[in-house]
Write a structure and sequence with these properties.
Ubox_domain, about 45% helix, globular, U-box domain-containing protein, Herpes Virus-1, 18 helices, ubiquitin-protein transferase activity, about 350 residues, Znf_RING/FYVE/PHD
């Protein structure tokens, strides 16, 4: 198990497009590894995944960054290449390039919004109005939450004038409505305004709220897991089971197609070896449904890369074709079992 969860080994697997189950396990426990470059290497795991062209794998790894506030999509390689540069190396993988370009633009817009550079945000949304109600999977706030946090009614009204753009008032951050976020940020003037102007969105909506409520089974599971975990102060890598190797098209074949030789300069070590401990809170957060916030009983991964309780996301799909975490339209509604989370749940129960 120690080999499976070393940064060097995980990066090696990513480089050769193999053992994604092992990579997913490692990044579930060490999300910060996604952009760390191991000693003697040129690229981090993120760069290799982008180079592979596998958008589904990228989405799952980006979803794990929701708890990593230090994550930066454009983290450079040792030669200052970004994921956008790497995606452009693969003209045969247009879907990956399109995904990276969209993420970069959303990141840019929300970075401007965080800094209250509203004119720059305005230009981006005017160019593509859909950006105004979307966010990358690793960001907490949508545009409207940043406007709310700034207590800026004037800017809210300015954005409303953009042709073909309309704010989505159902958007939530941490399962909280816009008015709640505004009050938490000390923006009571904005909260009062939006509640008065759009009361239908902020009155008690039992149907909408139920989408975020856990089932009785999930509540029981949460209580059970919490009791079991109270017996531990810390969990080790060795508590968990590694995945099975999954080989894809060989890296050397892709390299030959791209005609690119990867350099491997020496640099300071960022390696974080396994055997590290994880707090109870960290593991509990890992086991939560992204929609309800409670421990999963039947964990599944949707097209957005996030893990949900199966029944919760199936209920969501009855009203929406978009991700509840990014508000982007999902490529499909297929749900795959999250074997990593299930393994961790099983290991806790066995303790």
């Amino acid at each position: 198990m120690s080999n499976t969860l070393s940064l060097q080994t995980t990066c090696e697997d990513a480089k050769y497009f193999r053992n994604f189950t092992g990579i997913l396990m490692a990044l579930s426990l060490h999300p910060e590894w996604l952009v760390k470059i191991p000693e003697g290497r040129a690229w981090a795991i993120l760069h290799h995944v982008v180079y592979s062209g596998d958008v589904n794998q990228l989405e799952q790894l980006l979803a794990l960054q929701k708890s990593n506030t230090a994550f930066r999509l454009l983290a450079p390689t040792s030669k200052n290449e970004t994921v956008l540069d790497i995606a452009k190396l693969r003209p045969d993988q247009k879907e990956m390039l399109q995904r990276i370009e969209r993420l970069v633009k959303l990141d840019e817009m929300l970075a401007y919004a965080k800094d209250c550079e509203w004119d720059k945000c305005y230009s981006i949304i005017e160019e593509n109005p859909s950006y105004g109600n979307e966010k990358p999977p690793y960001r907490r706030f949508y545009l409207i939450h940043h406007i709310a946090a700034d207590n800026n009614i004037d800017q809210f009204q300015t954005f409303k004038k953009i042709q073909n753009f309309k704010f989505d008032f159902t958007l939530r951050a941490d399962r909280k409505k816009i008015n709640v976020i505004a009050r938490e940020e000390g923006s009571n003037v904005f909260a009062d305004y939006i509640e008065q102007e759009y009361p239908s969105y902020f009155d008690d909506d039992e149907i909408d709220d139920k989408l975020y409520e856990p089932s009785d089974t999930a509540l029981q599971q949460t209580n059970k897991i919490n009791v079991l975990m109270e017996q531990h102060n810390i969990f080790q890598d060795s508590n968990f089971i590694s995945g099975i190797a999954e080989n894809k098209k060989p890296r050397k074949v892709v390299d030959a197609d791209v005609e690119k030789t990867q350099p491997k300069p020496k640099q300071a070590s960022n390696q974080n070896q396994s055997g590290v401990g994880y707090s109870v809170g960290f593991i509990q957060n890992l086991l939560k449904c992204s929609l309800t916030g409670f421990t999963v009983t039947d964990p599944v991964v949707a097209a957005d890369g996030f893990t949900y309780e199966r029944s919760a996301i199936e209920n969501w799909f009855k009203k929406s074709n978009c991700s509840p975490m990014t508000n982007e339209k999902l490529a499909h509604k297929n749900l795959n079992p999250n074997l990593i989370v299930q393994q961790i749940l099983n290991s806790i129960v066995r303790e």
